[in-house]
Amino acid sequence: MKDSSTVAVAMAAFVAFAMGCPGPEEEAGTDDTAASAGDDTAGSPGDDTAAPDPLATDDDLDGFAENDGDCNDRNDGVYPGARERSHDGVDSDCDGEDLPALSEDRFDEALPLLDTDGDQAVSFAEFETACARSAMVVDAANPGVVQTHVSCGGTNSCRGMVLHSWEALYEHDCRGVNSCAGWSCVETATDAGRDGATAFTEARCDWCHSGSDGGFLVQVPAGEDPDAWVEGFLERTDAQFLAAIAFGVSGVSADGVAYADMPAHYGVLSRAEMETLIAYVRTLPIEGPSDG
């Protein structure tokens, strides 16, 4: 590939302590009490009643006890096989590290599906086209959006696929190497068929971008020239707007580092809804902060 930069819940265990106080007859040492005390069957070595094994008890009700490999039985988000996210300080899947295990490399399986021109290589255009159909080219998934200009140390989603520059394709590995060493296709939300105006409101775009008389208010990042930023706003490509909506990317600095100051919406809007939203915004009057 030639371009790799474009794209607990803590449950406390309640232990009840029942403190028994001797009754008057017990204190007096009645015959019944004496008989009971002399009964060698109560609590004898032959008693089958045993204290429960605390390691076999699923304290956080996540389906796994410590004997089953649960490495934190006070957090129901931690258990063998749980979704792992890198660099969050939690070994969610109890494999001994705070990084997801890489899934099987499926490049050979996916190459015929990705390589539409038959040159035995995958171009960015081919990858983006496949991503727009499904976030995982081999398995079923919602359509995705290719990450561009994201921080090499961060992750956005654990659902999708990432094609590394060394020609290895995995289901999204969430290892923070997406823009540094490959292209990352992140799954978007299930399509709800919202039109542009509805998506604009339900994705909370109106919180920051509602201008006067139904216009679109452009937020100008610190350090940017307001007039130039607003004037060039609609000159952005649909792909740039798509990445901005999906991943909360507001702009890209001269050295290619993106800054984000709005929510990422790949989990809120479908790709089709994002595209409809972009078309809707292009019909609105554009204004800057000083215009209103």
Structure write-up:
With 292 residues, the chain is of the alpha+beta class. The protein has a domain at 196-287: Orthogonal Bundle (Cytochrome Bc1 Complex, Chain D, domain 2). It has 10 helices and 8 strands. The protein has helices spanning 24-28, 31-37, 107-114, 124-133, 178-181, 196-202, 206-209, 226-231, 238-247, 271-281; strands spanning 144-146, 160-164, 168-171, 182-187, 216-217, 249-252, 258-260, 286-287. The strands form 3 sheets. A 4-stranded antiparallel sheet has the order 1-4-2-3. It starts with 23 loop residues before the first helix and ends in a 5-residue tail after the last strand.
Short key terms for the protein model shown above:
alpha+beta; Cytochrome Bc1 Complex, Chain D, domain 2; two-stranded parallel sheet; 25% helix; 10% strand; disordered N terminus
How do the strands and helices of this protein lay out in sequence?
Blueprint: H1 24-28, H2 31-37, H3 107-114, H4 124-133, E1 144-146, E2 160-164, E3 168-171, H5 178-181, E4 182-187, H6 196-202, H7 206-209, E5 216-217, H8 226-231, H9 238-247, E6 249-252, E7 258-260, H10 271-281, E8 286-287
Parallel strand pairs: 5-8
Antiparallel strand pairs: 1-4, 2-3, 2-4, 6-7
What is the structure about, briefly put?
It contains 10 helices and 8 strands. It has 292 residues and is α+β, with helices and mostly antiparallel strands.
Structural class of the secondary elements? alpha+beta
Mean pLDDT comes to: 79
* Secondary structure tally, helices: 10
User: What's the total count of β strands?
Assistant: 8
pLDDT < 50 runs, ≥5 residues: 1-43
Oligomer: single chain
Cross-sheet strand order for the largest sheet: 1-4-2-3
General shape: globular
Give the % helix. 10-25%
Q: At the third CATH level, what is the topology name of the domain at 196-287?
A: Cytochrome Bc1 Complex, Chain D, domain 2
Question: What's the CATH first level of the domain at 196-287?
Answer: Mainly Alpha
The end-to-end distance, rounded to whole angstroms, is 46 Å
Order of helices and strands: HHHHEEEHEHHEHHEEHE
Any idea what the radius of gyration is?
Answer: 29 Å
The CATH architecture of the domain at 196-287 is Orthogonal Bundle
Strand content of the residues, in percent?
A: 5-15%
Largest pleated sheet:
4 strands, antiparallel
